[in-house]
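If it is no trouble, can you show me the amino acids of a protein and the tokens describing how it folds?
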Amino acid sequence: MTMDALRYYEDLAIGENAESSEREVTREEMLEFARRYDPQYFHADPEAARGSVFGELVASGIHTAALWRQLDATISRGIAWICGVAWEDVRWPHAVRAGDRLRARYECLSKRPSRSHADRGVVEMLYTLHNQRGELVFSCRSINLCARRPPPSTAAGG
């Protein structure tokens, strides 16, 4: 992506939103992630998970957040992000199960110029992830730093 194709702080509009394409979650990837990073029995052991409050294997919340990130990258990769600095109000209201088809969405909630760095702005986004039934499976408000549009270069000598 060229620098001209980037969307800078000035290009973002409060209220703008975008939604990703759909991605199916497989039992195998849920097990692989859980066994490596979050081996609680209801994530990593299909037999034991039947006796959990979920009644079956469910994706780890951290895995769900990673799936959101993967999908969000497809809709926000053209934004000149510097980094995220905070997640607030993080929620997992419904579990992700094998076979669920997920879509990520963002909405720009607010923005302001940085008080300490003129080359960036602070952007608050609402990030959500929904399954095929429209149930919310992950959400957070994220505070992000976004590059401001660089000033036009001046021609040498005048």
In short: The longest strand covers residues 101-113.
